[in-house]
Protein: PepSY domain-containing protein
Amino acid sequence: MQTDKPKKAKGIFKKYMLKLHLWLGLLSGIIVLIVSLTGTVFVFNEDISTYLKQDMIYHGEKDIENKKPIPIRELKELVNAQLVNEEVPAEEVTIPMDPTRSYQFGLFKANPEGWNYFDTYLIFKTVYVNQYTGEVIAVDDLLKSPFFFTMILHRSLLLSNAVGGTIVGVATIIFVIMLITGIILWWPKNKNMRKQRFWFRWKKVKGWRRKNYDVHNILGFYSSALALIVAITGIMYSFRITMSWVYFLINGFSMYAPDFSHYKTTAPESMETPTTVDRIAATVKEHYPNAFSFGIDLEDHENADHHHDNMTIRVKDHEFKYNDSHTMIFDEHSGELLFNRSHGERLLAERATGATYDLHVGAFFGMPGKIIAFILSLFCASLPITGFVIYWGRRNKKKTTK
Structure:
C-alpha cells in the first residue's frame, strides 16, 4: 500500500499541472499566436528592407574618391530646405562608414498620451540623402511599412506600450509557465513511452487527433529550450525591471554600473564652429574605421527638448546586430574627445543585457540564428492551435460520453 502513495501523489501533481497548462493556454493562446506569427515576419525585417531599398541606401554618386561630403550642419539645412512640407525638421543623422551609402536623417513625432498605434506614432520617417550633393534621394515613411506595423503589433498589439506591452509581457510570462508545465506533462513514465515522445511514429497511426497530439508534444519539447530564451528576452523588453534583475545576477549580485555623468561639455559655446560636428565625425571614423555606422543628434541648443550634458555617440559595429557597439563622449562645443570605450571594455553584465534584442531575433548568431528564430516562431505559433484542438476534442468527447 505504501508504494502506491508516491504514484498517487505523482498522479495528482500531474493532474493539477494539466489543469494549469490548459487554463493558462486558453487564457493566453490568441496573444501567443499573434506574437509568434508577427515574430516570424519581423525576424528578417532589416534583411528584406535593406534588399528592397537599395536605390535609397546607395546614392550612386560617381568619383567619390575625389569628393568630400558636405559639412554635416550645412547638409542638415539643405535637407530641411527640401522638406518644406514636413511638420518637423530633421534633427538627427546616421552616418555610414561605407562612403557609397547614403546619410540617413530622421523625422520623428510621437504623442505620449496616445492609446493606440495610430494615435501614438504621428511621424516616423527616414530621409535618405546624397551627402556629396545634398540631394534628398527618398523620404521613407515607416508608418506605411508593413514591417513597422508588424513590429508594433508584436510588441504591444497596436495599443500603447503601457497597456499593450503589459498585456504581451503577461502573456509571455504565462507562456514561460506553460513551457515548464508542458515539459513536466511531456516527461515519459517509462522507456516504452520515451520512444513515442521524441519523434513521430505514425506508421500505425491513422487518426488525425493522435497526430495533432504528437505535433503539440514533440514540437513543444524540441522548441522549449530556445523558446524560453526568446520568451525571457521578450519579457525583459516588456518589463524593464527584469533586465535590472538579470544585470544584478550576472554582475555578481551587484547593481554597480560605470558612471559617465561627469563627462560634460565645459568649453564655452563660442568655441563651437559650423564644422565642429564634422571633426567629431572624423574622430569617430579614425577610432572605428571598420564599424558600420554611428548617429549624431543635431538638435539646436535653443530648441532642444532635452538637456545636452555632452555629445554621446554610439558606434554600431554590424549592420544587423546592435549589441556590438562602442561609446564615445565629446565636448559638443570644442569637439574634444572626453571618453572612449569599446564594446570589449564593457562589463559582462552590460554586454549580456545589451544582447537582449539580438538574442530575441536570433541576430546574435548571424543568419543561422535568424533562420532558427524563424522556425522556432512557427513552432511556437503552432502550440496554441494544436493545444486548443486537443482541448476541444476532449471537451466534445466528454459531451458525447455523457
Summary: The CA atoms of residues 29 and 358 lie 25 Å apart. The mean pLDDT is 91. The beta strands are 92-96, 103-110, 121-129, 136-141, 293-297, 311-316, 325-330, 337-341.
